[in-house]
Amino acid sequence: MKVKSKKKITPYCYLFFSIVSFLLLIVYPLLYTFYISLTNLGTGHILNCTEAKKIILEEVIYPDNAAILDFNILEKNNAFILYMKQSERKAYQIFLPRNTQTEEILTGTQISIDEYKKLSSCKNTATSEQFIEHLTHLERTTFQIENRIYKLTSLTTLSEVQKRYKELNTSTIIDTKTNSTYQPDFSTGYFETPSGDRLLPGFVTRIGFQNYLNFFKGTSFGIPFLKIFLWTLMWAAGSTISAFIFGLILASLLSSQTIYGKKIFRVGFLIPYAIPVFLSAMVWSAIFNFSFGPMNKLVSYILHIKIPWLLDPLWAKLACLMVGLWVGFPYMMLICLGLIQSIPQDLYDAAKIDGAGFIHRFTKITFPSLYKPMLPILIGTFAFNFNNFNLIYLFSGGNPPMVDTNTMGGETDLLISYTYKLAFGPSGSNNFGLASAIAVIIFILIASMSIFNFKISGVFKEEESL
Amino acid sequence: MKVFFFLCIIFVSTSLQSKAEEKEITLWVSNGNIAKILNEIAQPFNKKYKVTISAATVDNTVEQFKTNALGGKGPDVIVWAHDIIGTLVESGLITSVEISPSVRKEIFPVALDAFTYNGKLYGYPYNFEHIALIYNKKLIKIPPKTFEELLKVAQNFTKNDHYGFLFPVNDFYFSYPIFKAFDVYIFGPNARDIGLNSKRAIEAATYIKSFTIPPKGSGEKTLMPIDVDYNTMMRFMITGKLAMMINGAWSLPKLQAAKIDYGIAPIPTIRGKKALPFIGSYGFYVSRMSTHKILIKTFIENYIYQDDALIRLYKEERRAPAIKTAYNKLKDDPIYKADLEGFSNAYVEGAPMPNVRTMASVFGTMKTTLSLITRDKESVSQALNRAVDVIKKSSRN
Q1: What is the pLDDT of residue B7?
Q2: CATH 3.40.50.300 is held by the domain A60-163
Q3: pLDDT digits (tens, 9 = 90+) for B114-134
Q4: B156 and B99 together in one domain
Q5: For A78, how many CA atoms within 13 A lie in the half-sphere containing its CB?
Q6: What is the pLDDT of residue A361?
Q7: Beta-sheet strands, E only, within A170-273
Q8: Which chain B residues are closer than 8 Å to A290 by Cβ?
């Protein structure tokens, strides 16, 4: 390969891919989520209108004394013949062309008993194997024999069926049993009678901003939402800042020259980072178990009381923050270690000569030189913790439940796990529309908070001045 | 570059070919051993009909099935409990099935009831299960017949680190028999009518609360820790520190592995009323999108509904076969006789767990509600009223 230097284009070459992936992986999902939030997609509303109609029209009923015909198969002239005896005097045969199309209606003709006997004495009975190849088509085929409709019900039988619903015109379905008519209602997503009786399944339809309205009007908004939002902020800020402080202290301790066995400590402190959260969150939840957890065993051994971890709102929040700290500090420590090593040693030497102690050197040299580069990382971690579904879901499951509200939100639920509960949780249904609507709201919240954070921290100042 | 294109062409052509040839029927199962057994059962079928029925283990089977169905993909069949029928039918993801009359009459009616929704059958049931009183024979010689008796016996066993009687009180599946004994209904004849905050429901919940928080001045010991759950119960049972628990047949292999000499008895009566549990059933659901419905029917009726197949499945799962002949055959087996008979009382009188969609909401809501009640965080009537409110709301959308 020849290398041509195209200095002007090269940066755009790289940019091109990042722009494409930005559009594909960020903008598209975002727009798609927004689109979903305007529909009623969810349990009961998965198919589109025509598919739903097809399912309804496919519905058959087996009459109480449905005729069942046992058939045999014969291969002849590149076609199958199904032949069957209805009674001692009546027999039928049906020709099946080899390439039957789907949803075909095949008519059976009556044959004499003699002919039937002749057919059954034929040697070239089709093997089931050949027949099975066409089964996919035959399953959908309707057989008509003397004004009765039959469907294939097993490899050897046809059963009489009746269509339950008929299409009156493109948008009306009639129930042959009750004669009531159903029309698609695009605000509810069901085929409905004028009085509101519905046919299952429903279909997906655009419902405008109904999901947003439902959320803001419903009882899940209001005080529980506010409580959960505040706790989410507390959690995100608390777990980020505590992890940063703890990680920074450890990092500066580990980089001071008077400590022996630094390597062992570094590896040891990294362990929480190496264990998947999926495991550690559940282990911690067992540790904090009220009656049998080791934490309470220890506490009751020392203080002779049991702390209601995960049962009492306040203690549960504290436990969450403790686990958040445990999971988060190694990352912070790792980054601080790297940054501290980049601080010139001369500064410390000079400070030592001036008689500055450890604390002074930390507050006057280490912290100021770390603060700036750490800010974007802190903001990122904040946004990550804001949506840290895994940890909360696996550790506390949002418990303990809130008292005095009509939602099933928990005291330690984050906005994101609350959304999950509202849309997918105990209600037994998946409400993708509502979930997307709340996701959009959360996105707006986080995005505006992040912009605000970046603004006041001046992370982008350098570029703005350019 | 040329080689690359060549490989591409080979890859594309082979993938097209294999698609045209194979007649493949996929089954999704949550349990790997069951998938293995089903694959073995399917072998003669595959040979006879020149098709490939293959069972795959898929975690979170139902959710995966729903998600795949959204994209028009997914398996032909999933194997799952009957309680999801409401959700799947409402979304139009499964088809109704017809079982041949000769096979149908061999199936226990309760299993068929479980799979019936809006008067139609939506799956092929193959087993059923429910919970009962399981006790440690070393500690309890004769199982109690009434709850009053049981509580008295349990009191004697409950002392430092040993418990007389435990069950996951907050799990509505396990505490339902108590509600049932108090004559509480979940759904009334009208779908909007939910009986979980009736006077009798409050009585039942108060009764359950007395296990973790004995009424003041009664002088009774606390029977259960306030955060008792399934794992706690099993841990104490396996270590021999628990005399009695309420659990299902699925727990028996673990007890056997721990060499616990267990006995099974009906859940005791409360004030003379029977505490009947929910009956659950597992079965095969056929996807609406499957194009092999007849083959699936043939496979299940002729290969799964066979005594040998069902007995193999029983030995793995310990859920009683839904086919009468297989059930009776197992009952004659001295190894399984006691297990089957211990559980058999309820399926005659008991009713299947409701399979409407709202049931999931009932379970979810009652779990939080009962946990508030048994920790004394909220008054019984207030908590139950709230629960009914939430359930009603969830059934609306």
Answers
A1: 56
A2: no
A3: 999 988 999 999 998 999 999
A4: no
A5: 2
A6: 85
A7: 172-175, 181-185, 190-192, 198-199
A8: 225-227
Grouping H, G, I as helix, E, B as strand and the rest as coil, residue B248 is strand
Question: From CA A451, how far away is CA B171, in angstroms rounded?
Answer: 44
DSSP B266-316: PPPBBTTB--PPPBEEEEEEEBTT-S-HHHHHHHIIIIISSHHHHHHHHHH
Average pLDDT over residues A85-97: 79
Name every chain A residue with its beta carbon within 8 A of the beta carbon of B161. Answer: none
The chain B residue lying nearest A131, using CA atoms, is: B49
Inter-residue contact B287 to B78 (CB < 8 Å)? yes
Please tell us whether the domain made up of A52-56+166-208 is placed in CATH 1.10.10.10.
no
d(CA B385, CA B381): 6
Topology annotation, domain A217-465: MetI-like fold (1.10.3720)
**Residue A247: which of A414, A370, A65 has the closest Cα?**
A370
Distance from CA of A8 to the nearest CA of B (A): 28
Mutate to test the interface with B, among A32, A53, A154 (most CBs of B within 10 A): A154
Burial class (CB in 10 A: 0-12, 13-18, 19+), A464: exposed
3-class secondary-structure state, position A101: coil
Calculated CA dihedral for residues B364, B370, B375, B380, nearest 10 degrees: 130
**H helix or E strand, kind and range, residue A150:** strand A148-152
- Tokens representing A29 are 């999902």
Answer yes or no: is B330 within a domain.
yes
B87 and A47 in contact by Cβ < 8 A?
A: no
